[in-house]
Amino acid sequence: VLNMYVDRDIDAKMPRTIKRPLPARVLLPREALAFGSLISVIGVVWAFTLSSLVGIVVAAGLFFHAGVYTMWLKRKTPFSVIPGGVSGGMPVLAGRVLGTGSIDLVGVLLALSVLLWIPIHILTFAMRYAKDYQAAKVPTFPAVYGEGKTRLVLSVSTVLAGLAMVFAVYLNGVQGFYLSASLVAVILLIAFAVFYSVFPSPKRNFLLFKAASLYMLASMLLVGLAG
Q1: Among 62, 157, 170, 217, which one has the highest count of C-beta atoms within 10 angstroms of its own C-beta?
Q2: Can you give the CATH number for the domain in which 181 is found?
Q3: Residue 72 in domain
Q4: Is residue 67 part of a domain?
Q5: pLDDT digits (tens, 9 = 90+) for 79-132
Q6: Structural domain span for residue 210
Q7: How many distinct structural domains can be found in the chain?
């Protein structure tokens, strides 16, 4: 909600987001700010009641998403996806900390797998809605560096994200069906990303976006079920 408050001006310039509550005037900015602040505080406080370390991780996620990514870097650099990815990895790290009581290598690898997955999710989206971001004057990696380099980044990021996930699953002691299923999911996503990079098309771009989302959902479910 806080990011919608901060981005309400650019949301009003993009057809994809113009119907969100703030640009559509369903909510007033002060209402969104109050609600977003309230649920953020409640979430962080609740996390601290679980453990101080969980609270720190959750607070860090909020800081990177609302502060570093949304308020500071999103409108300045296409590399804002990096702190955005850091914030994306904090929930799974917080869950791991809650379960183990510490920040361990498995938790870091799971968070890293999300961080490295974020470019697949964001950059495919940025290419699909390039005109929207251009209208809002938000610098995206494809707009600044071109789609060729973007597809290369997608392929490399997919491989690294897959490796981080596989190592996390393996080090967590997952074996048998769940390990095999995780490997299959990683291999399929990497193959699709490389295929798209070599034979790009708008349709394949959107399919990769969807496939990446399904991959992350399936991978986290496999980790959870195996644990």
Answers
A1: 157
A2: 1.20.120
A3: no
A4: no
A5: 999 999 999 999 999 999 999 999 999 999 999 999 999 999 999 999 999 999
A6: 104-226
A7: 1
DSSP 8-state assignment for residue 139: -
Average pLDDT, the chain: 95
Domain assignment present for residue 219? The answer is: yes
Looking up tokens 């999710």, which residue turns up? 121
Residue 71 and residue 5: Cα distance in Å, rounded? Answer: 10
What residue type is assigned to position 206 of the chain?
Answer: F
For residue 95, the tally of other CB atoms under 10 A from its CB is 17
Strands (E), 95-200: none
pTM of the complete model: 0.93
d(CA 183, CA 212) in angstroms, rounded, equals 14
Residue 78 DSSP symbol = G
Q: Which two tokens stand for residue 51?
A: 């453990």
